[in-house]
Description:
Blueprint: H1 2-136
Amino acid sequence: FAVVADEVRKLAERTQNATLDIGNKIKLIVDGTNQAIVAMRDGNDQMQAGRNNAVEAQQNLQGIIQETRQLAGLLEQVAQAENSQNHGFAQFAGDITAVGESTRSLSTETRSIADAIKRLDQLLDELGRSSQAQHAS
């Protein structure tokens, strides 16, 4: 009976050790599982934050695209205004050139008139002298 009791005691010790070992292994598994759950939650949070950042970046990009289109429209308006202004300047320059040519022509005609008036004055002087000479004779 003592041999059987000794064997039962040894078996109980081994069972107790095995139970402790299994408990430790279960604790390690539970701890590992909890760590995996925490890591998955963190990963999920990071994924959600990344998704939110991507949505925000997309919205910002859409805003940039819209503002770029508006800027392109404004630049087109500026270019059209510049072309119109250049056309106006070209017309103005043409008008100035025409005024210059008219002024030169008027100056030439004024000289011709002045020369004609001088000639007429000379003729009147000659006519006056001639008339005086005939009245005197």
